[in-house]
Amino acid sequence: MSDLETRRLEIDQIDQEIQSLISQRAKLAKEIAKIKQESAEEDSSAPFFYRPEREAEVLRAVKKRNDGALPADEMIRIFREIMSACLAAEQKTRVATLGPQGTYTQTAALNHFGHSIDVVPQPSVEDIFRAVEAKNADFGVVPVENSGEGMVGTTLDMLVTTPLNVCGEVELRVHHLLLGRGGDIESIGQVLAHSQALGQCRLWLETHMPGVPVIAVSSNAEAARLAAEDQKLAAIAGETAAELYELNTLAANIEDHPENTTRFLVIGETTPEPSGDDKTSLVFATQDRPGALHHQLEILARNSVNMTRIESRPSKRGLWEYLFFIDIEGHQSEELLSRVLSELHTEAAFFKMLGSYPRRVA
Questions:
Q1: How is residue 102 annotated by DSSP?
Q2: How many Cα atoms occupy the beta-carbon half-sphere of 322 within 13 Å?
Q3: Residue numbers of the domain that contains 282
Q4: Helix, strand or coil for residue 283?
Q5: Residue 103 phi/psi, 5° resolution?
Q6: Torsion of CA 62, 63, 64, 68, to 10 degrees
Q7: How far, in Å, CA of 116 to CA of 110, rounded?
Q8: Do 278 and 356 contact (CB within 8 A), yes or no?
């Protein structure tokens, strides 16, 4: 027997062991689902099968154990898919995303939950929130921030009023393609894309397609769908949309900044427990007095609470009133952070907790 045949036999044996262990894991997942269901029936509540903090703990352990034979992100991806399939054996998770099929939001959802979910496409960010609120989906994934274009105002506005919690975060490196049915740019009469994508590709479009009208639509996948129907239209979208709508790539990587990254939030009714490495998001408005914002932020500094992000947005409640969205390290259930949040609440004219959730595992 040759060395090659020997190695192949070893791989076959390992594959059998892997398959057997995955089957054992799936059986245990079903047993856990039964326990959760019985517990929920006892206290008349709906069971939450997907637990963000538990998934984060498992994936961090995978990353820590990784010996380098595969890159850590690949090992995490493999285990995420195993967990996704096992969770589907308990109960398939419904996730609302921006539609139609092929959006970056859908890609972010699949990256976070794995592919064993039911994707529920929605026509707008507002509709994603409404679908989860109406229990037509278990979770939603919404864009909140782009490294080049800044915050997504619609998402921030919805976070202020929704009863849902932020349950997680996803970051997606975004590489835009110019897509069309034809084979050259010269025949294109209009470029369609979501407004954020148009902003992220503005310099490229001005340089390579000067004078060609750009039209904002509800999503990049919708742009791809429309471009598939008209040879004179081009769409800015990703590889998934290109494959789904059978479009040609007229130009690749047309984003103005190569590190172009979009951050998404996972929203739902779940309140994640501490995972050991968490973030807390909140929004507040200051009292109408000099130095009010400085005083609020000083509460964080005095208690050595690290703020990782702050953004302001005009309030819908009054003229020239602003809301401040901040992310801080830690979980709201921790003693120190609970006390700090209580003090912030007392000093604010408006205050709302958006949620504590595991920091993304990458």
A1: T
A2: 9
A3: 272-358
A4: strand
A5: -80, 160
A6: 110
A7: 8
A8: yes
Map residue 258 onto helix, strand or coil. Answer: coil
Question: What is the amino acid identity at position 316?
Answer: K
Is 240 among the domain residues?
A: yes
Task: Catalogue the active-site residues.
Answer: 262, 264
pLDDT tens readout for residues 198-215: 999 999 999 999 999 999
* One domain, residues 162 and 195: no
Q: What is the 3-state secondary structure (H, E, C) of 167-228?
A: EEEEEEECCCEEEECCCCHHHCCEEEECHHHHHHCHHHHHHHCCCCCEEECCCHHHHHHHHC
Give the separation between CA 91 and CA 30, rounded to whole angstroms: 9
Residues with Cβ within 8 Å of residue 77, at least 6 apart in sequence: none
Region 5-13: mean pLDDT is 95
Task: Work out the burial of residue 49: count CB atoms within 10 Å of its CB; fewer than 13 is exposed, 13-18 middle, 19 or more buried.
Answer: buried
- Give per-residue burial for 294-303: e unless 16+ CB within 10 Å, then b: eebbebbeee
Q: Is residue 1 included in any domain, yes or no?
A: no
For the stretch 32-53, pLDDT in tens is: 888 888 877 666 555 568 899 9
Whether the pLDDT of residue 17 is over 90: the answer is yes
CB-CB contact of 176 with 221 (8 Å): no
**158 plus 189 within the same structural domain:** no
Query: Is residue 18 in a domain?
Result: no
Cis preceding-peptide flag for 210 (omega within 30 of 0): no
Output the six-digit token pair for 48.
């939450």
What's the Cα-to-Cα distance from 25 to each of 7, 19, 31, 86, rounded to whole Å?
27, 10, 10, 7
Beta bridge partners of 178: 236, 251
Residue 204 lies in a domain: yes
| Cβ neighbours of residue 112 closer than 8 Å, sequence gap 6 or more | 141, 168, 170, 264, 266
pLDDT of amino acid 90: 81
* 118 and 185 share one domain: no
The answer to whether the pTM exceeds 0.85 is yes
Same domain, 220 and 351: no
Dig out the tokens for 114 from the structure.
């794995």
Same domain, 181 and 314: no
pLDDT band at 302 (very low <50, low <70, confident <90, very high): very high
